[in-house]
Write a structure and sequence with these properties.
By secondary structure, the protein is mostly helical. It has helices at residues 23-31, 33-41, 53-65, 75-108, and strands at residues 47-48, 51-52. α3 packs across α4.
Length: 117
């Protein structure tokens, strides 16, 4: 009997750059953490692939503090970049969730796209 097999995206992408932490950027984020939470997370309740807005916020912090190209930016530009990166990661998470849900629905309907030998 053949079984269906899907290649699901990871529910939590590895977004960390895996480089050294940019201390200046980390200090800017730490100084403005409450304001960033208000801008990005307030009034939004999203749960996709088991991740909430707080999880996406944490992923964004990890990603942004490891970016090396933020040295020359002002504090305002770093905060704007953080908000932009948050929206990108949020969009990716929603897309991953939609992909997984779509493939779960096709499995329930008996449609198989890949088969194991």
């Amino acid at each position: 009997m053949k079984k269906e097999r899907y290649n699901y995206p990871r529910s939590s992408r590895n977004r960390a750059v895996r480089g050294p932490c940019n201390e200046r950027t980390a200090n800017i984020i730490a100084k403005n953490i409450e304001r960033l939470k208000q801008i990005t997370c307030e009034g939004v309740s999203l749960c996709c692939c088991g991740e909430t807005e707080e999880d996406i916020f944490s992923d964004t912090i990890l990603h942004v503090v490891q970016e090396n190209n933020l040295e020359a930016l002002s504090e305002t530009e770093v905060l704007a970049h953080f908000c932009h990166r948050f929206k990108m990661i949020q969009f990716q998470t929603v897309r991953d969730s939609n992909y997984v849900n779509q493939h779960l629905n096709t499995t329930r309907n008996g449609i198989h796209t890949q088969e194991e030998e």
